[in-house]
Hints:
Order of helices and strands: EHHHEHEHEEHEHHEE
Largest sheet: 8 strands, mixed
Bound molecules: S-adenosylmethionine
Distance between the termini: 60 Å
Shape: globular
Radius of gyration: 19 Å
Number of strands: 8
Mean pLDDT: 91
Oligomer: single chain
Amino acid sequence: MGWQAPVPRLRKARIVRDFDLLGALPKCIRPVGARKANKEENRRLAFKFGAEYFDGTREQGYGGYHYDGRWRKVAERAIRQWQLKPGDRVLDVGCAKGFFVKDLRESLPGLDALGIDVSDYALDSAHPDVKPHLTKASCDRLPFPDKSFDAVFAINTIHNLDRPGCERALREIERVCPGRGFVQVDAYRTELEREVFLDWMLTAKCYDTPEGWLQLFRRAGYSGWYWWTVLQIDDEIVR
Ligand SMILES: C[S@@+](CC[C@H](N)C(=O)[O-])C[C@H]1O[C@@H](n2cnc3c(N)ncnc32)[C@H](O)[C@@H]1O
């Protein structure tokens, strides 16, 4: 056999799927120390995803979840990144009071933006403009047919389920919107970040390093976009 030119090894191009959708939101300072007191009781109340969580004290949740237009820039960013157009259908998974749904619909008239959430309180107190477009449902059982959306956003929602639940939710997002989902979840990169995160978090049941999450994404066959909510050690959250 004579000499043969080496066959070049073909590599799949790496498709970067990380995207800081919430980069336009203002950063929040979080009083981590204050949440350490009465942690178990605060967690118990927060898990109800009721009035305490949304509109109670900061120790128990948001400390007031009000519409202030901050989602507008996120909506515009999403519309650009996903190249959405009038007539497209998008879903916000864990939409809370529907603020992102409202700003998506207003930023692109004709966009059919819907939301789902498990919280009766949030859905009942949703902005009246969007109430008709919001439904009660869980992220691990989306009441929609396969391939029924052009984009699906799950922002700080699926990590409220345990790991098998997260996997089911990722499969559901992929099912209704193959390759065009967006998932943002709690993560930590160092032991110190993990400790601060545990002091702060109330409702997360599944959290991991970015590498751990990526493994779960692969296992679930999730091929959409993602970003991490990382609590930084100076008490600041990068959303
Ligand atoms: C941290 S909040 C995020 C709300 C909103 N996506 C945002 O970024 O402002 C988590 C939301 O997930 C909702 N949630 C919790 N478990 C859920 C589930 N199994 N399915 C759908 N939504 C859920 C809560 O009610 C809450 O509205």
